[in-house]
Design goal:
The structure is a single chain. This protein is α/β, with parallel strands linked by helices. The chain has two domains: 3-139, Rossmann fold, CATH 3.40.50; 165-352, Rossmann fold. Helix content is 26%, strand content 26%. The protein has an eight-stranded mixed β-sheet, sandwiched between helices. Strands 3-4-2-1-5-6 form a six-stranded mixed β-sheet. The mean pLDDT is 92.
Length: 359
């Protein structure tokens, strides 16, 4: 198959690396309003599309509704147009709209035919997606857990319904250990918990995965799986929440995280126990592990550390969490009863002791 891709913006960049098995051979070029090159391919103008011998046009632009109508007006058949919303990885609101029961195709009128459980909805403008959301919600609602439906209330951990259950527990853990969040604090991808729970004089550092190690401002680039690409003995506290589920060599990643601590430094870790697969992460780098109390205990136990492990969750909350219910969907008080046989989040406080073992 030979493809033209319409789009060269951030939306396209988020999809293009995962869309084709053989990018160099399959993609003829990109279409946009300005000439140039993109990912080593020529950018052509819309008026030049007809000159190319292609099989499909993929619309990787957030303005897909307008672009599709333009393509139809140019005489291009609807059957050769692929809307980006139908292609993984799903981004933003697409995660909510495209369930396992959803299908989408382009009509000859330039609209989208969205089908869900035998229903068909014509999408011609952004407002039509609100109708889709209501239908999905009514079909896959909170009562699903009572009837053991195979379809969840939400596929994004309930964040579209309120506060996510796992985040409630993560924040409880960090609040209870906030005395350690001080000095030079390293956090994965952002510094929201450093700012929320850290001491006023704490200094934020943000770890960003990169094949090349280095530091730019407060951003630390490296790879937790590779000891040569992480700084050693630099941080008083490291906050890694829901990180190690998505790293293949998790043992090395935890060992290297501890190596980044100063003496008496503290690593605050949270990982998922009972949880749905994170589709966002699975489609990009992989969702490899879910954990138990014992696996976290063994992974975080080193000679130069003191370890505290705890878990949060119970059977009823775990059922709700798997269905995508939020904290707001659950009755008050049920969250705080913890049963170690049904952990949603397992947490570890790993404290690095001095070389002679004395604090």
């Amino acid at each position: 198959m030979k493809y033209l891709v319409w789009g060269t913006g951030s939306y396209c960049k988020g999809k293009i690396r995962f869309a084709f098995q053989n990018f160099d051979d399959e993609v003829l070029g990109f279409v946009d309003r300005k000439r140039g090159s993109f990912y080593g391919k020529k950018i052509i103008m819309p008026s030049e599309i007809q000159r190319y011998n292609y099989d499909k046009i993929v619309v990787f632009s957030r303005h897909y509704l307008e672009i599709i109508k333009e393509l139809i007006a140019m005489g291009i058949k609807s059957t050769v147009i692929i809307p980006g919303i139908a292609c993984r990885p799903l981004m933003g609101e697409e995660i909510q709209l495209m369930t396992d029961h959803s299908r989408i195709c382009v009509t000859q009128e330039g609209t989208l035919d969205y089908s869900f459980r035998g229903r068909h909805i014509i999408v011609s403008q952004e407002e039509d997606w609100e109708i889709v959301k209501k239908i999905i919600c009514s079909e896959e609602n909170i009562e699903a857990i009572k009837t053991l439906s195979v379809n969840p209330v939400s596929r994004v951990f309930g964040i579209d319904r309120g506060k996510a259950v796992d985040r409630y527990y993560i924040e409880s853990f960090l609040y209870n250990h906030s005395k350690y969040i001080k000095g030079d604090v390293l956090e994965m991808g952002e510094d929201r918990y450093t700012k929320r729970f850290g001491a006023k004089d704490s200094k934020s550092h943000i770890f960003v995965y990169s094949e090349e190690a280095g530091v730019q401002g407060n951003r630390v680039y490296g790879d937790l799986e590779d000891s040569a690409r992480v700084p050693e003995g630099k941080y008083d506290c490291i906050i890694f929440t829901q990180v190690f589920n998505f790293i293949w060599n998790v043992s090395a990643a935890i060992k290297n995280s501890i190596a980044m601590l100063k003496e008496k430094g503290v690593l605050l870790v949270t990982v998922a126990g009972n949880t749905p697969v994170s589709r966002y992460d699975m489609d990009r780098w992989g969702h490899y592990w879910n954990f138990t109390y014992k696996s976290v205990e063994k992974l975080c136990d080193f000679d130069n550390t003191e370890l505290e492990v705890c878990s949060y969750g119970n059977c009823k909350v775990a059922c709700g969490f798997l269905q995508g219910m939020s904290v707001d969907d659950l009755e008050p008080g049920i969250m705080d009863y913890c049963d170690n046989d049904y952990p949603i989040v397992i947490c570890a406080c790993v404290r690095k002791v001095t070389k002679n073992g004395m604090d």
